[in-house]
Amino acid sequence: MKNNTEAQKRQVADVVAERIERLIIDNVLKAGQSLPSERRLTEKFGVSRSAVREGLKLLRARGLIETSQGKGSIVANLMARPMQAPMMHLLSSQPRALYDLLEVRELLEGESARLAAQRGTKADFILITRRYEELVAAHGQETSALALARLDHAFHLAICEASHNPVLVHTLNSLNDLLLSSVFASVNNLYHRKAQKQQIDRQHARLFNAVIGQLPDQAHKAAVNHIRSVRANLKEIEQEEQRLVRATLRLDGWD
């Protein structure tokens, strides 16, 4: 009888762990986010507190959560990012690395937009609308380039989350700092140029309307065209600067 009781406890703990894992993979619980208290989990799952504790123990053993005294449990960073420090250096020193990253964004975000338009729920569209409206509202205010970049990135990330493809979402999350750096490059170099800024605003509007309107092909096209346009504009700015340097050297007699 005791063995049966222990087996049942393990089964319930497995169920608790599985349900929390599902929340993590669906990005409902994000890296660094605190889990609800044991009491709240007990109420939500309809199990005993001991079952919740055992379930959390399983998640800790799997490296999915981290627990500290007095602070409770948080979702662990599931994607190790040791490469990002050197990559961030390359992005700041080698323009080609930025263009390569924009190429990756084109592939991932194009598919994200298509899936979001296909699979997005009413709740997803509410969140995407909020992020879009926050981005639009910030343009009429005195907002730093970094703050605008974060709002811009949040809009694109909300679309990705609406794809309901956990692997795609976690892949983009693992590249979060790198992706934000590419958005910052766009904001910092293009937003103060009136023509390019208006172009980006129109592209964001097309992307938003296509996803909310549940038009997969148009959403994919809008996302891809947006990233390609950003890359082309950044390359043009780089070439402008190179022409200016060459002309200045000739003027100074270095040719």
From TrEMBL:
Keyword field contains Transcription = yes
Enumerate the spans annotated as HTH gntR-type domain.
Answer: 10-78
InterPro entries in the cross-refs: GntR_C, TF_FadR/GntR_C, Tscrpt_reg_HTH_GntR, WH-like_DNA-bd_sf, WH_DNA-bd_sf
Recorded hits in Gene3D superfamilies, A to Z, give: GntR ligand-binding domain-like, Winged helix-like DNA-binding domain superfamily/Winged helix DNA-binding domain
Q: Which residues form a coiled coil?
A: 220-247
Q: Which SUPFAM superfamilies match?
A: GntR ligand-binding domain-like (SSF48008), Winged helix' DNA-binding domain (SSF46785)
Q: What is this protein called?
A: GntR family transcriptional regulator
Supply the Pfam families for this chain: FCD, GntR
- What keyword terms does UniProt attach to this protein? Coiled coil, DNA-binding, Transcription, Transcription regulation
At the top level, the lineage of the source is Bacteria
- A GO molecular function held by the record: DNA-binding transcription factor activity
- List, alphabetically, the NCBIfam families matched: PRK09990.1
Does Transcription count among this protein's keywords?
Answer: yes
